[in-house]
TrEMBL record:
InterPro entries: Pet117. GO terms for cellular component: mitochondrion. It comes from the Eukaryota. Residues 81-91 have a biased composition (Basic and acidic residues). It comes from Meira miltonrushii. GO terms for biological process: mitochondrial respiratory chain complex IV assembly. Residues 1-22 form the signal peptide. This is Cytochrome c oxidase assembly protein. Keywords: Mitochondrion, Signal, Transit peptide. It is found in: Mitochondrion.
Length: 91
């Protein structure tokens, strides 16, 4: 094999190996970035869930206070469901 052929073969091998390594490295980086996105989404969902639970508790407390001031028929008979709502209206 001539010297030019050997240099060309070596250069081809170096370029190919570098390309494979670079693609592999980029895939690893992208996977890490995507996983961080999943972690952020999970944290955001947990925060939303905590906030909704807190809002629910606050609303329950407000409802108790309002019902003490002015009770409603539905609240007394079963937390917002009136007894008449179970009956089918006649036509």
């Amino acid at each position: 094999m001539s010297r030019a052929a050997k240099v060309t073969l070596a250069a081809s091998l170096v370029v190919s190996a570098t390309t494979v390594w670079a693609v592999h490295y980029m895939q690893i980086q992208e996977r890490e970035v995507m996983h961080k996105g999943v972690e952020r989404d999970a944290a955001r969902q947990a925060d939303k869930k905590r906030q909704r639970a807190l809002d629910l508790e606050l609303n329950k407390e407000k409802e108790k206070q309002f019902q003490q001031i002015q009770p409603t028929k539905g609240w007394l008979s079963g937390r917002g469901k009136s007894q008449d709502s179970d009956q089918i209206p006649e036509r």
